[in-house]
Write a structure and sequence with these properties.
The protein is mainly alpha-helical. The protein has helices at about 1-25, 35-45, 50-60. The two termini are about 25 Å apart. About 5% of the residues are buried.
């Protein structure tokens, strides 16, 4: 049903945001990469591959529409 789909979407979004928060912490030097990986495993969130992050940053910084 529709309610279940909304819950799944919310969970997927929070997984993505949790991973982004960890990645940003590494970029700012707040976490070491292995600490981010351990935290991601602990919380069950997904970290994007480094190449994908660089691509997303490039697309965002050149003013083109960022993909979801």
């Amino acid at each position: 049903d529709n309610d279940a789909n909304k819950k799944i979407e919310t969970a997927e979004r929070s997984h993505k945001n949790g991973g982004l928060a960890l990645e940003h912490a590494v970029e700012r030097g707040k976490l070491r990469p292995y600490e981010a990986i351990e935290a991601a495993l602990y919380f069950g969130v997904l970290l994007q591959p480094w190449e994908q992050r660089q691509h997303d940053h490039h697309v965002t910084n050149t003013g083109k529409k960022r993909k979801a």
